[in-house]
Amino acid sequence: MSWSWRITTIAGIPIYIHGTFLLLIAFVLVSDWTRGQDLAGALAGVLFVLAIFATVVLHELGHALTARRYGIQTRDITLLPIGGIARIERMPDVPRQELWVALAGPAVNLVIAGLVYVLLVLPAASHPIRLLSMSEHTIERFAEINLWLAAFNLIPAFPMDGGRALRALVAERTDYVRATQIAAGLGQGLALIFGFVGLFFNPFLLFIALFVWMGASSESLATQTRFALAGVPITHAMITDFRTLDAYDTLQSAVDLLLAGSQRDFPVLHDGRLAGILTSESLTSALAQSGPGAAVAEVMDRTFRVADAAEMLEPAYQRLQGCRCRVLPVLKGDRVVGLLTPDNVTEFVMLQGALRRRAAAV
Hints:
10 strands, CBS-domain, alpha/beta, 4-stranded mixed beta sheet
């Protein structure tokens, strides 16, 4: 995720903080300061927020480490002002495994809240809260927020963990796509309820309603795409009418190709072999810095991923989603025989859906 910086690595998983998170810290400082708090009080408020987000990291690690038990890795965890995002490579194919991965995050928050409440009832002589100079009110708030995080994430609607848990339970009795549609439909229904209540009582619910609606729609589309691509050779969906550049071509040649058609990213060849990729963003930046006479080889991206013409479409598409650029060259031996882009995969899914509807009608 752009505008993010790595702050640490836990259990081999990089932890990033997004730039907008700093705005949250600044907001807390300014809010406490304007309410008459001294510097120590304002800093205490920031530390409390950081403690809450430490539990968010633990929540996401609960998902990630549970997924690891099933052989699924997590690319990274990013902290945002609205929470955390763990980029798990994929969800488990077995519904029961997805259930445990989904419930692991809220379970972490429940355990934290339980441990905090145990601290509150310890004898005063050995009270660790007083040793840390923390008020019982502060520690109670900390526990209550963890309970709220667990309860909120267990709402049976995408993109919350409860939506994935519901999908996993339904998938035990029906197919995965149907289970996703049921869970997504329920999520969108809850979004409408949140939105209606928010109009009259709490405007913040309008934000939650939008978040839930978009998450449910996105999950439904992603699942339909995944199953539409399963078992399909990559050669059935790749672009075969494409243009390439030579490493010695000038940027003006790239400009001419870009303006002549709809292709935005170009494989760059050297002696007939793939040497790099020139994206439209790199081209635009290089034109401003070096002018149209610069060589393509000077600005092309030399770090890229490829697909083999013999592989299936689904794993290639997953690899494409992890790329920085929007194109995955398809190779047959050393020769580029096609390109895979998000747009042509989306078009393929739409066409396959139309053909299935036609077959069902007949």
